[in-house]
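Saturday, quiet lab. Running sequence design on the structure tokens for the scaffold JK sent over.
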């Protein structure tokens, strides 16, 4: 299980650079990220090397942040492998709220990061099906 940092922020010029600058100054590495925006506000979801310190540093600068449990699953880099995992989750009656990709820097393999309701149950399910959880 991974901790995801969600940052709720205004959608304005320089915001992403400001956030990444704060993390850089604290020597916190961004391992995966996705941004969802609207006309005025957005949510930046990140898996970072030190979620607690990232949250504290960003809150100190006035950002509204939340830590959430997510699952990371290492996949083989093959055509259709993401579909295979999603099909297995669907057949196991598991709803995936959202996904984004990262990669394992040591192995070079993609990591699917996803959010679902019952993290522990889903982790057991994916392990039973032969996938590696990170």
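Result came back. Writing it out in full:
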């Amino acid at each position: 299980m991974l901790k995801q940092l969600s940052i709720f922020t205004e959608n304005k010029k320089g915001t992403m650079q400001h956030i990444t600058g704060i993390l850089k100054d604290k020597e916190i590495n961004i391992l995966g990220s996705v941004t969802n925006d609207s006309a005025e506000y957005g949510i930046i979801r990140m898996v970072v090397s030190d979620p607690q310190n990232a949250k504290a540093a960003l809150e100190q600068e006035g950002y509204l942040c939340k830590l959430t449990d997510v699952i990371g699953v290492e996949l083989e880099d093959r055509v259709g492998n993401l579909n295979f995992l999603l099909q297995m989750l669907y057949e196991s009656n598991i709803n995936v709220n959202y996904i984004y990709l990262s990669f394992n820097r040591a192995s070079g393999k993609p990591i699917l990061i996803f959010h679902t309701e019952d993290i522990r149950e889903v982790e057991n399910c994916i392990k039973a099906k032969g996938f590696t959880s990170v």
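Notes for JK: DSSP finds four helices and seven strands in the chain. Helices lie at 15-25, 51-60, 81-91, 119-128. Ask whether to fix the surface positions before the next round.
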